[in-house]
Every structure is written in C-alpha cells, then in structure tokens.
Amino acid sequence: MKALLLAAAWTIACAAAAIVAFRLAPERRGARLMLVVFLASVPGFVVSVFATPPDLGILPAGLVESSTRLELVFGLWLYTAIFFGGVLQLYNIADRGFSLRILIDIVENGRGGASAADVRRGYGAGRGIEWMLDKRLQGMLENGFIVQQPDGRYLLTGRGQRTARTYRGLKTFLRLGQGG
Amino acid sequence: MVAAPLGFAAFALAHVTLFHLRPVKRRSQAILGLFAAAVVTVALTVMTFAGVLAAMYATVLMGTAFVLYMPFYYTIDTSVSVRTMLELAASPSGLTREELVARYHLEWMVRRRLETMTVNGYLVQMDERFTVTPRGRLVARVFGAVKTVAHLGPGG
Q1: Residue A151 class from Cβ within 10 Å (0-12 exposed, 13-18 middle, 19+ buried)?
Q2: Which residues contact B145 (CB under 8 A, 6 or more apart)?
Q3: How far is the C-alpha of A61 from the C-alpha of A51, rounded, in Å?
Q4: Do B20 and A152 make contact, defined as CB atoms within 8 angstroms?
Q5: How far is CA B120 from the centre of its chain?
Q6: Interface of A with B in 118-137 (CB under 8 A)
Q7: Looking at CA atoms only, how far is residue A92 from chain B in angstroms?
Q8: Nearest to A167 by CA among B72, B20, B52
Q9: Pairing of strands A114-115, A154-156
C-alpha cells in the first residue's frame, strides 16, 4: 500500500511540476518536456521509498509490505504506468484530441449545436479541419518520420517507412480499418 | 505476483485472437468486456489463495497494464498520423498536402467521430445537427480547464 500512496503523491507532484514548466516555458511545452520532468523525478521517488517507514506512519499492519525491494519494484511500475498511461495521455488528449476538439467546438457553437459541415468549417476554434492535418504533418516533420521535397511533396523517411510497415501489419492482423 | 501478468497476457491474447478471427463492430465494449472478465477471474483466484491485499495488488497491476495498453491500441486504430504514414507508404513518389487532403476524406473522418461520440452518449443528433449532452459538456469543461491551467493551445 505504501507503493501505491507514494506513486499517487509523486504523480500529483510530477503533473504540477509539468504544468509549472508549461507556464514558464510555453515554447517548449510538449510530451518531451513532460518526459524530462518525469525522468528527473524518478530518483526522488526511489529515495522516498527507502527514506520513509514501511507504514508511512499511518497504515494499519494488514496493509504493510515488509520487503522494501518489492515496494520499490511495484511502486516504480505504478508510477511509470500512471505517468505514461494517465498523465501523458491526459496531456495528449487535451493538446491533440480530435474528438475532444470537436466536442469543445460544438459546445462553443451554442445551444443550437452544429452540423457536420459546421464542425469541419469551425474546427480548432475556427481554423478549419485542414489545420488538424497541417498540425500532424508538422509534428511528423519535426520527429523525423517524413521530409518535404522542394516541390512540396511529402515522403517517408527510413524511420517513417519502418513505422508504417509495423502499423500496417498490426492493422491488418487486427482487422482494423484505415483509421484516422 | 505472477497471476496479474498471466491474467493480463490472457486478456491481451483473447483480444488479439477475437479481433483477428472476426470483425468486431463495438470494439471498445468488446475490449472492456474481456478485460473485466480477466480482472474478476484473477482477483477471485488471488483472493482465494493469497488474501485480500494480494488481490488488491493484482487488480492494481492489471489496471495499470490496461492504461498502458489502451493508448497503444487506439494509436493503431485511430491515429491520424499513422493513417498519414500509411497513405505516404502507398505512394512511393510522395504526396502533396492537397493530395493528402483528397485521400483523407475529411468529411468521413469528422462524421465517424461524431457518430462514435453519439453512440457513447456525448452528443445527440437531431436531423443534421449535433448537440452536446450533459456528459459531453462535463468532459468539455474538464478538459477545457486542463487546457487553461496548462496553457495549452486550441488543441486537436
């Protein structure tokens, strides 16, 4: 139980530190900055497992694990999983969620709601649906998945080709559609 | 300690096998059903042989594995960036932005998301217009607050 409580406390601290970092350096905000904050906090998490008593001074005997090593392994797993599966996903949805943006646009459109055509036109607070694609293309350029030729055509890099092959195989095996 | 990884592996295997063998229409519900069955089986087994605390640990372990697994699955299923890379992989001479827009069927993509949100209770459709349900409004407010606090842009 100590591992669970420490992981929860460190997750809150990590999320708060990421928010502060986003506000202080808005030009650097992104998943990479969040990852830096998380990695910087891991040594602190390890120290806190060894530096605190097994019952944290509050836990009943039935919820105390005697092996500190087991608490450390379990706690690190929890902290990592909550960060990558929770905090980072929350950020991804808030910053890049396609459906969430549509939902917010419809809310902002007022009580009358919106048609599919209104959604396409007003997507991204009035930027239009093609802006969503431009944002993805920019992200893939920055991360080295694609390059843009002088004639404007986009091409996959070696990294992009390997990634595309992997995902095509997975999509085919799982019988998923073209997606997007 | 072994039951949770084994239980999760059994769930993942069942998910992959089911999706491979037959087309699944309500995918999210199918995944949640399989995962719930796996969690209940593991929790009851561990509780019987090792007690309540061990069962709680096993449930938490499976839950955390699930929150790591699902984003990966949804990236395969719905990611726009992955779709773009697949379109480019199918065109060795590359594609311009306009060609990508034409291949995307952006109208279909928007409609697909609107339908999914309607099925999941975030929107209701009346004639050709979509309005937000109280549940959808709550989600929009919560994430809107996250965007404001974290100084995020319009997103999407």
Answers
A1: exposed
A2: none
A3: 19
A4: no
A5: 12
A6: 119-120, 123-125, 127, 129-130, 132-137
A7: 9
A8: B72
A9: unpaired
What ipTM, to 2 d.p.? 0.74
Closest Cβ opposite residue A103 in set B16, B68, B139: B139
- The answer to whether the CB of B122 falls within 8 A of the CB of A103 is yes
DSSP state of A55: T
pTM of the model: 0.73
B11-49 pLDDT tens trace = 999 999 999 998 887 888 899 999 999 999 999 999 999
- Sheet containing A114-115: order of strands: A114-115, B129-132, B123-126
B140 interaction partners in chain A (CB closer than 8 Å): 100, 103-104, 107
Give the containing element (helix H, strand E) for A96.
helix A88-96
Q: In sequence order, what are the residues at sequence separation of 6 or more whose Cβ sits closer than 8 angstroms to the Cβ of residue A110?
A: none
Asked whether the beta carbons of A135 and B53 are under 8 A apart, the reply is no
Token reading at A19: 């928010």
d(CA A173, CA A89): 25
The amino acid occupying position B44 is L
Single-letter residue type at A58: I
The residue written with tokens 């019952």 in the block is: A55
Contact A34, A18 (CB under 8 A): yes
Question: Encoding tokens for residue B141?
Answer: 């407010």
